[in-house]
Amino acid sequence: MQLKGIAAAVLFVIACLLAGGIGSIFTSPEIPTWYAALNKPDFSPPNWVFAPVWTTLYILMGVAAHLVYEKGAKNKAEVDAALALFTTQLALNMAWSFLFFGLHSPLYGLIGIVTLWLVIALTMVRFYGISRPAGLLLVPYILWVSFASVLNLFVWMLNP
Hints:
Number of helices: 7
Radius of gyration: 16 Å
Distance between the termini: 52 Å
CATH topology: Ferritin
CATH architecture: Up-down Bundle
Structural class: mainly alpha
Helix content: over 70%
Shape: elongated
CATH class: Mainly Alpha
């Protein structure tokens, strides 16, 4: 990979990490207060697990997006469509933090995360068709969001 390719990959990863940082603006202040007071299911992981998991997922997402971007010269329309879906899921990812933590609404969070899951699935399919490694790099992401969706559902049910 040339220096230009490495720089582009780094930019994609930074963009994904920034999206996570924006989401954390709504999340971090609520962890010791509002979130701590919620009833949570027994399978809820400790709070310290979330930051390293999300950081890893954002890095994988950035690498996946870069792999797709690199295919743009050969199939620009398909790559543009895939990256548009990717951008949509990234925006939905940030929105979930606002819906759940910012609005203190497990219900709105649940609606948001189900929508996010669907767009991730569509993004994975598009990415896989362009670059199999890119599609596979999103598997841990959809698995984590699947778990987070169940967790969100239980938080909503346990906190009427």
